[in-house]
Amino acid sequence: MNRREFTRNLCGAAFGVAIVQASVAQQKSHEMGGMRHPMPDKPEEIAMLIYPGMTALDLIGPQQVFGYVMGANVHLVAKTKDIVVSDTGVGVLPSRTFADCPSVVDILVVPGGGKGTITLMNDDQTLDFLSEHAKSARFVTSVCSGSLVLGAAGLLRGYKATSHWAVRDILPLLGAELVTNRVVQDRTRITSGGITAGIDFGLRIAALLRGDDYARALELTLEYDPQPPFGSGTPEKAPANIEKMTRSMYEPLHVAAREAALVARKRWA
Amino acid sequence: MNRREFTRNLCGAAFGVAIVQASVAQQKSHEMGGMRHPMPDKPEEIAMLIYPGMTALDLIGPQQVFGYVMGANVHLVAKTKDIVVSDTGVGVLPSRTFADCPSVVDILVVPGGGKGTITLMNDDQTLDFLSEHAKSARFVTSVCSGSLVLGAAGLLRGYKATSHWAVRDILPLLGAELVTNRVVQDRTRITSGGITAGIDFGLRIAALLRGDDYARALELTLEYDPQPPFGSGTPEKAPANIEKMTRSMYEPLHVAAREAALVARKRWA
């Protein structure tokens, strides 16, 4: 494949249906912009769990990045083929079910959410799916409160991990060591902070898969030069009254998540 | 409604199905965290256009914010009720069609995309829908290359506007004055830069609707304290070779968008 063909393909990925030719994916590296980039022996399989009550932005932040990674197959995996409705009412169509998801995936991703996420923390079918696929996955990952589900499955025991600020203190109950960075990698586990952290997370995964220059090009494609209007994106940076009020909103969820964690850990503690 | 009831409702919006009580929305202000926040006389109707080939993150960035704005009705509007597939293969279910969208909406939003967006630039049915709803909308808005569709409909003539960096130079062909800020408001028109700019855009709209403190709480809810891994999110900030390569990927799209603009302007020029 010459540079022009490559460019056309990547443009296709960036701007239409992601057309990935097996011949490309079988190359171990390719030339782009005068640089060589690593390519996999075969397309990576990325399985993103979707479920009722998930936060759509937790899912779509990294999905948009992964979808632009030439040579990766991105699956939205649910229990059934039924439409999955997010916490703000977005209906998303699963592309795979637990039954027809590739048995070996390279990356397993669990997005967060609210009550739906807490329900998953004690959903045997979901925890079994995650545990089974985590055995062979290269990276077991999460965005936002998705780490509580990984933790409930026992998959964060002995690992450093993070979560949405409002519930991250629950992680130690699930055997994880809480680290409050925006993206935390500890060996095969990569967890990230609340909602928008999924974009930073996605770009870091892209860099792990294709190298820093490839990820730089994706960052530019996403025009990811954020300008938060208020600078109140963490409990530490927000004005005290805003932090207090927002935390109070999360209190019922925090209580429920803690209770779910205490039940879930009986599976493996 | 007392503070506890309000908290429960906002928590519901943040963490489950958005439960909005008309009684809440009919208040003109409410107390939150010791502060008063403006509330609308009636729920705002926010219509977000969805179409094949849209960039899902353009849509979901602001949708996640709007979905957390208590008292707003957020509609995903397509030509038909068929699943709409994004540029990276995410299937999204429309909640409304052109036919059953509220005839008067407060905010009209057009997300961007690639080839699908260019197709819309000369799609009469879509341009008519936008033109009709723009007449009464409080804000006519876009994320990323969605502004090219607004421009094609003649809705940016005489307005300052922006778009994704790779195609924004086309805006003057559509009668707009290009401004390269991340979010550009000119009277009733609010346009934003590429893909991830939709989050900044969404938070600014939230501030317009509910005040800065409310938007600060949403920024904290979204944990929007971004840490771009590479700092290459604009053509100016990216290394020269990355910028050159990425721009070359966009070249076919740029050519097509320019041609579409020249055709579209014949409708009204």
Strand content of chain A: 15-25%
- Going by CATH, the architecture of chain A would be 3-Layer(aba) Sandwich
Give me the side-by-side strand order of the main sheet of chain A. 7-4-3-8-9-13-12
Q: For this structure, what is the CATH homologous superfamily of chain A?
A: Class I glutamine amidotransferase (GATase) domain
The quaternary state of the protein chains shown equals: homodimer
CATH topology of chain A: Rossmann fold
Question: How are the SSEs ordered, and which strands pair?
Answer:
Two copies of one chain form a homodimer.
Chain A: H1 3-15, H2 22-25, E1 29-32, E2 35-38, E3 44-49, H3 56-67, E4 72-78, E5 84-85, E6 91-93, E7 96-97, E8 107-110, H4 115-120, H5 124-134, E9 139-142, H6 146-152, E10 160-161, E11 177-178, E12 183-186, E13 189-192, H7 197-210, H8 212-221, H9 240-264
Parallel strand pairs in A: 3-4, 3-8, 4-7, 8-9, 9-13, 10-11
Antiparallel strand pairs in A: 1-2, 5-6, 12-13
Helix pairs in contact in A: 3-7, 7-8
Structure description:
2 copies of one chain form a homodimer. Chain A is an alpha/beta fold and 269 residues long. Chain A has one domain (41-267): Rossmann fold (3-Layer(aba) Sandwich). In chain A, 38% of the residues lie in helices and 18% in strands. Chain A contains 9 helices and 13 strands. Chain A has helices spanning 3-15, 22-25, 56-67, 115-120, 124-134, 146-152, 197-210, 212-221, 240-264; strands at 29-32, 35-38, 44-49, 72-78, 84-85, 91-93, 96-97, 107-110, 139-142, 160-161, 177-178, 183-186, 189-192. A 7-stranded mixed β-sheet of chain A has the order 7-4-3-8-9-13-12, with helices on both faces. A two-stranded antiparallel sheet of chain A has the order 1-2. Chain A has a two-stranded antiparallel ribbon with strand order 5-6. In chain A, α3 packs parallel to α7 and α7 packs antiparallel against α8. The first copy, chain A, is globular and about 50 Å long. Mean pLDDT of chain A is 90; it is low at 1-27. Chains A and B meet through α1, α3, β6, α7 and α8 of A and α1, α3, β6, α7 and α8 of B. β6 of chain A pairs antiparallel with β6 (91-93) of chain B, so a sheet runs across the interface.
